[in-house]
Write a structure and sequence with these properties.
single chain; 705 residues; alpha+beta; Endonuclease, Chain A; 3 domains; 17-stranded mixed β-sheet; two-stranded parallel sheet; 48% helix; membrane; hydrolase; PLD-like_dom; lipid metabolism; repeat
Length: 705
């Protein structure tokens, strides 16, 4: 029988403490305003832990919020430092991956990055495994007030709680409008803020080797922003973490266990708002509750369309898990919605919140998404309010959030929730036909291949990805078995030695070409252009394709760069031969080094993929190459382990890759012509060709689903 979850330190939480005063900031506007008020009230220090930071973000977008200080974050902080001679500001920012460079400030060239102020420190923190990130969002003022949740002081975060369509205030630092954005932050004062400062100090020490200095006892009154209503007082909370294993630091999965315990304890309802839904463990727990005859209602709010890149990865996993939830919903107690604004045209609200409410007596909020990354890979911070019975502050928050999404009065939502005793009935009865509304999200996978790929969870790994480290560790562990196999022939031993030499050569080239250059399209073009008239260019380009194929550089980038610099025929010849050599080399690595090595690279999901490949013919291999359903290098490695015949694999690869290769080269050729000779005819030919290729790809995906 479900009951209130028991909080156990080091299992489902880090510590328990008391909040003297607490409140919620249900929009970026509320958070930005409260942050400024708290900074202006602070006397000793401001400590900020961030995943992202934009120094030029405009914090004031409305005259009502104007406090007389500069609107831009960087100018605001500099002026405050000048006016407060005792105030120190310390910022700990994740030393982000290169994949985010295009959309983030380059710190060495920013005011904050160059600021030489005796009371200001900006530290970048890379103390996580490769592929992981510091995703905690926390700011502490004088050790007496803390704010944490899903929001960073970054671009594209500001929005009002009304989520107005086409709000002219909602623009990026480059004055480009962006879609409505929903998130929430929690403010806590008292002991909880002091305990959270301990976390900040531990993170600071992890990054710099030194903990934060102890704060001197202060007789000044506790800080509280005037714009934030106090929602609760003298309330106990639990603080929970996610940390990946890193050097001597252990893996911590308190947030995952906390979610599982709270899902298990639900009696009447589970209400979730989240950016992602890709954690199979958590979804399995939700499915088990749906199969119960008297289990809880489950309502989940997600983003409808997160963009093509996320739709190709996290979106496919989300769609698969939504299918499983609908399949488990034997009693009609599951709904999934996305918030949007419908005034003639429909505009989605991007859901970035990370929140769960259970029975109006349990509230979890913080930085963790319902993804494998947040449960096991990234560093995360969540706050949990665990009560034995429904509490007014949780009831009001749930009503406030639903009122925001449905454009209703909070009192109307509270009355409906109380009278219907049903989240689903309340939403369906009060959902308007226009304006802000919640629409059903009925997403699903388009093919069985997509389902198999999603079931592997490769698109949202549950452990940090460090291929070189993992492969090296696996090879070292397998060395005795590999080198001293009594049944190996001299020929095979010779092949093993050669394969090792090739592996080290590939690794060296990979480091030189990929990690140092980043291999953007511009860099690839410049590299190839420098070799255009030199002897040996074609073999070198083929070698680049081989290395790129093995280390998972997008091959289309190399094809485009080759076509632009060396011509279409060279691009086709180098692309096909290089890709085939890379496919053969990766197949050989998988085949000869075996499952243990590949398992180390991609995890336990290898068995599912092997099963899907085993016994396949040339036709299936062609489909795998034609449709963008799995990374090129991943298919190569697993195919070598799966027992798939090498001839079938190579013939299917050659036939399956050729159409796509020709399409990329042909489109690049006509795009180049349109740029060199921009006439209506050249652009029309390019657009017709691009449309034909996209249409064919869409047809093929439908044909083979």
């Amino acid at each position: 029988m479900p009951s209130t979850p028991t909080l156990v330190p080091d299992k489902n939480c880090w510590k328990q403490c008391t909040v003297a005063d607490g409140g919620f900031l249900p929009s970026g506007r509320d958070y930005f305003r409260a942050f400024r008020e708290a900074v202006l009230s602070a006397k000793h220090e401001v400590i900020l832990l961030a995943w992202d930071l934009c120094e030029t973000v405009e914090m004031i977008r409305d005259e009502k919020d104007d406090d007389g200080y500069p609107s831009k974050l960087v100018d605001f902080l500099i002026q405050v430092l000048e006016e407060k001679p005792e105030l120190k500001i310390k910022i700990l920012l994740w030393d982000y991956s290169v994949i985010y460079m295009a959309e983030r400030d380059w710190l060495p060239f920013t005011k904050l990055g160059q600021l030489k102020h005796p009371r200001f420190e900006l530290v970048t923190d890379n103390s996580v495994p490769a592929g992981a990130s510091h995703h905690q969002k926390l700011v502490i003022f004088d050790g007496t007030l803390a704010m944490c949740g899903g929001l960073d002081l970054a671009a594209w975060r500001w929005d009002s709680s009304e989520h107005l369509a086409d709000d002219p205030r909602r623009v990026s630092p480059k004055k480009k409008p962006y879609q409505p954005y929903h998130d929430i932050q929690t403010a806590v004062a008292g002991e909880a803020a002091s305990v959270l400062r301990e976390l900040a100090s531990a993170r600071w020490k992890r990054a710099t080797g030194q903990a934060l200095p102890e704060l001197k006892a202060s007789v000044s009154p506790a800080i509280w922003p005037d714009s934030v209503p106090i929602a609760f007082k003298d309330t106990d909370i639990a603080i929970a973490f996610t940390y990946p294993k890193y050097k001597s630091y252990p893996s911590i999965r308190q947030i995952e266990q906390l979610y599982l315990d709270c899902i298990h304890s639900a009696k009447r309802s589970i209400y979730i708002e989240n950016q992602y839904l890709t954690s199979k463990i958590l979804v399995d727990a939700l499915c088990r509750r749906l199969t119960e005859e008297d289990g809880p209602e489950i309502v989940i709010l997600l983003t409808h369309d997160a963009g093509w890149a996320e739709d190709m990865t996290m979106g496919r996993m989300r769609n698969r898990l939504l299918e499983k939830l609908r399949e488990a919903d034997e009693h009609g107690r599951f709904r999934c919605f996305y918030p949007c604004i419908k005034n003639g045209k429909e505009q989605q609200v991007y859901v970035h919140a990370k929140l769960m409410i259970v029975d109006q007596r349990i509230l979890i909020t913080g930085s963790a998404n319902l993804s494998n990354r947040s449960m096991r890979v990234d560093t995360e911070l969540n706050l949990a309010f665990i009560e034995n019975e429904p509490k007014p502050y949780i009831q009001r928050l749930q009503a406030q959030l639903l009122a925001m999404h449905l454009h209703k009065q909070e009192a109307e939502l509270q009355h409906s929730l109380k009278s219907t005793k049903s989240l689903i009935r309340t939403i369906e009865e009060l959902n308007p036909e226009s304006g802000n509304q919640l629409k059903p999200l009925n997403a699903s996978c388009e093919s069985d291949i997509e389902r198999r790929l999603a079931d592997t969870q490769l698109l949202d790994p549950d452990e940090p990805i460090s291929p070189i480290h993992n492969v090296w560790g696996a090879l070292k562990a397998q060395s005795d078995l590999y080198w001293h196999d009594q049944h190996s022939s001299p020929y095979l031993k010779g092949f093993k030695i050669l394969s090792w030499l090739v592996t080290f050569l590939v690794a060296g080239l990979a480091i030189a070409l990929f990690w140092k250059s980043g291999f953007s399209q511009e860099q690839a073009t410049n590299l190839l252009a420098s070799f255009e008239k030199k002897p040996g260019t074609v073999p070198l380009v083929i070698l680049i394709f081989v290395v790129g194929g093995i280390i998972a550089v997008p091959l289309n980038l190399l094809v485009i760069a080759t076509a632009l610099t060396l011509g279409s025929w060279v691009a086709i010849a180098c692309g096909l031969s290089g890709s085939l050599l890379a496919a053969g080399a990766s197949f050989g690595i998988g085949h000869y080094f075996g499952k243990p090595v590949v398992r180390k690279v991609i995890g336990e999901r290898i068995d599912t993929i092997i099963q899907s490949l085993r016994g396949r013919g040339i036709g299936s291999m062609i489909v795998l190459r034609l449709l963008p359903i799995a990374p090129f290098g991943l298919i190569n490695l697993v195919a070598g382990v799966s027992g798939l015949r090498f001839k079938v694999y190579m013939v299917g690869t050659a036939i399956g890759m050729l159409p796509g290769l020709l399409a990329v080269v042909l489109t690049t050729n006509h795009f180049q012509k349109a740029l060199v000779n921009p006439t209506p005819y050249t652009w029309l030919v390019f657009l017709l060709l691009a449309g034909l290729i996209l249409g064919t790809a869409f047809w093929a995906q439908k044909k083979f689903k």
